[in-house]
Structures are given as C-alpha cells and as structure tokens.
Amino acid sequence: MENKRILVIDDEEYVREVVQICLETVAGWEVIAANSGISGIEIAEKEQPDAILLDVMMPEMDGIMTFKKLQLSQLTKNIPIVLLTAKAEVTQDQELAEIGIKATIPKPFEPLELPVQIAKALNWDV
C-alpha cells in the first residue's frame, strides 16, 4: 500500500493505540492521533492528512458534529472521512454517504483487516 497519512480521532486511548499500531505495521501508513473532535479539527487543519478515521461517540463534540465542522473549513472539507463506530447501522450508510462520509467501520473491528477496509472505502490501492 502506498504511504498515506491518517488522522485518527477517538477519545479512547486503547482504540487509538490499536489503530495506530495496525495501520503503521500492516499498511506502512503514518498515523496522527487526536483524543477529541476539537483537537482533531486543529490537527487536520495543520497536518492535512490523506484521510480521517473518526469515532462517532465522543464527549463534548461527537463525530458527526466534528465531521460537520471539518466540512465548513476550506482547509479540511476535501479530506475523506471514514467513521469508526460501535453504533453503525447499515440503514444509515446511504444517509451518511449523502453528507459525504466515505464509509462506516463498526467497532469492534478486526485490526488486521482495518487497512484494507479503509483502502477499499477510499478507492486506494490495496
């Protein structure tokens, strides 16, 4: 897989660590991590990642609100976003696609399959 930079926004430290280890080891991607929507937006604007893996359920600012704020910024509106959520519902996929979400990956996820799931969602070479 070609070298990509992924921003992981998740309030759970364990999830961020598992995702980072997996994406770096299996895919060779660079991973940047944020523990909240607010810090994630700041990091996305500064670092300009190739994609964002965004948790839906977070305190203060949830993933959908974070997504909406990212869409409002000229600096981040074109960064593809994949949701990572324990509340994934297949019926929401069409609605999410209509607002610009590239895919939804349910928690718990299979760490070794995560890079392939992200790459397929974003039409990247696997």
TrEMBL record:
Domain of life from the UniProt record: Bacteria
PROSITE patterns with a match to the protein in the record: RESPONSE_REGULATORY
Positions of modified residues (4-aspartylphosphate): D55
Keywords: Phosphoprotein
TM ranges: none
Example GO BP: phosphorelay signal transduction system
Matches recorded under InterPro entries: Bact_response_regulator, CheY-like_superfamily, Sig_transdc_resp-reg_receiver
Response regulatory domain residues: 5-122
Protein name: Two-component system response regulator
Organism: Mastigocoleus testarum BC008
Upper taxonomic lineage: Bacteria, Bacillati, Cyanobacteriota, Cyanophyceae, Nostocales
